[in-house]
Amino acid sequence: MKKRKYEPAGYKLLVKKSKAGLGLFAGEPIKKGTCIIEYFGRVLSEKEEYTSNSKYLFEINSKTTIDGTDRKNTARYINHSCHPNADPEIWHKRVFIMAIKNIKPGEEITYDYGAEYWDEHIKPKGCRCHKCHQD
Fold it and tell me: Cβ distance 58 to 68 under 8 Å?
């Protein structure tokens, strides 16, 4: 049976310390073009969306935002990068994290959080991604 595009491939993923706090790392090679993991959470009401203090909000569209705070949502540990190796794709109001490059074991999985998040949260403190914050 052929695997569907938006079906996580079951990769071994590890939550470990990164430059930005905790991060999600590949525990085995991840092939470009495959689905790594789904980002999931509770759908928020419009009021909750504007009053939430969660750092794990993901806007699906102008009317739907999910809160990925639940620790079962391992995708919440994926950090921002200005030079990412993954990209979120929305399909049927669900968020799937897709590999846009081959990812080596031990490599942190990252995606670009987008301009709005960058301006509000990252720019004021400075970016801590690998590209911007090399030792």
Answer: yes
More confident residue, 87 or 115: 87
Is residue 39 predicted with pLDDT exceeding 80? Answer: yes
Considering Cα of 10, then 11, then 13, then 19, what sign does the dihedral take? negative
Q: Kindly report the CATH class assigned to 13-122.
A: mainly beta
Task: Give the CA angle between residues 27, 107, 104 to the nearest 5°.
Answer: 70
Report the pLDDT value the prediction gives residue 3, as an integer from 0 to 100: 64
Compute CA distances 121 → 80, 106, 115, 126, whole Å: 11, 27, 10, 9
Written as one letter, the residue type at 56 is Y
- Single pTM value for the model: 0.90
- Residue 1: DSSP 8-state: -
Tokens linked to 36: 């790594």
Average pLDDT over residues 26-44: 97
Q: How many CB atoms lie within 10 A of CB 38?
A: 17
Which residues touch 50 (CB under 8 Å, ≥6 apart)? none
Q: How far apart are CA 116 and CA 102, in angstroms?
A: 27
Q: For residues 66, 70, 76 and 77, what is the CA-based torsion angle, rounded to 10 degrees?
A: 170
